[in-house]
């Protein structure tokens, strides 16, 4: 699949500031990985007690495709993150923001459907190689599980199997669902987004929605079998994946 996202967006972006009318946040750990089309995002609040279900439910993360548009000449670009999987319940408004690049490595996002400002800075070593894969199920069809690579970084996204409870309301938080459906807490939290460096066949997990994964160093080999399929060995048995995007110069 050819790229649809301009190259200035490619890479891994660290959020260094969030400002809203209610707060100023510089401590939440946030990474946005962007390939030529696909994105993954993980957000871990610094003050969340992730030894508890409620603390883990405060995390955010999602993945899907990205679209860049310009509504009119001389207006800021609009970036829309089209979420196909989400750690938190569905939103009532699109995830979209106006984007202004202060430099090639720093972009300012301001809200369209909410009042906020976010500062994003690109991590060194996060451009060049771009890979997006979808894991194949037993029937040979792509599942919602994703593996994304940008430069020296890799993110794995495995959504929960449980569907949202029938009483889930738009913009509800996962924390309230966990309280209301205590018997389903484990299944509601069973959503893995893990991020870290990938180098010389090893993936070192820096942050993950499942804290027990953090700090692990796992063997990780990705081989392209054909134009449409790849094989991944990640810490265990090999698995087959559909190639959504593959740009690996050199």
Brief sketch in words of this structure:
The chain is mainly β. It is 7% helix and 50% strand.
> How much helix, percentage-wise, in residues?
under 10%
Give the overall shape. globular
Count of discrete alpha- or pi-helical segments spanning 4 or more residues:
3
Number of strands: 17
Order of helices and strands: EEEEHEEEEEEEEHHEEEEE
Note poorly predicted spans. Answer: none
Sheet having the most strands: 8 strands, antiparallel, barrel
Beta-strand percentage range:
over 45%
Assembly category: single chain
CATH class of the largest domain: Mainly Beta
The end-to-end distance, rounded to whole angstroms, is: 19 Å
> Structural class from helices and strands?
mainly beta
Order of strands in the sheet with most strands: 1-3-4-5-6-7-8-9
What is the residue-averaged pLDDT? 96
Number of domains: 2
Structural description of this entry:
The protein is mainly β and 250 residues long. It folds into 2 domains: 7-122, Lipocalin, CATH 2.40.128.280; 130-247, Lipocalin, CATH 2.40.128. Helix content is 7%, strand content 50%. It has 3 helices and 17 strands. It has helices at 53-57, 174-180, 185-189; strands at 11-19, 24-25, 29-34, 38-44, 60-69, 77-86, 96-103, 106-111, 117-122, 130-136, 142-150, 153-158, 192-199, 202-208, 217-224, 229-234, 238-247. An 8-stranded antiparallel beta barrel has the order 1-3-4-5-6-7-8-9. Strands 10-11-12-13-14-15-16-17 form an 8-stranded antiparallel beta barrel. It starts with 10 loop residues before the first strand and ends with a strand. The mean pLDDT is 96. Residues 51-60 have a biased composition (Polar residues). Residues 47-72 are annotated as: Disordered.
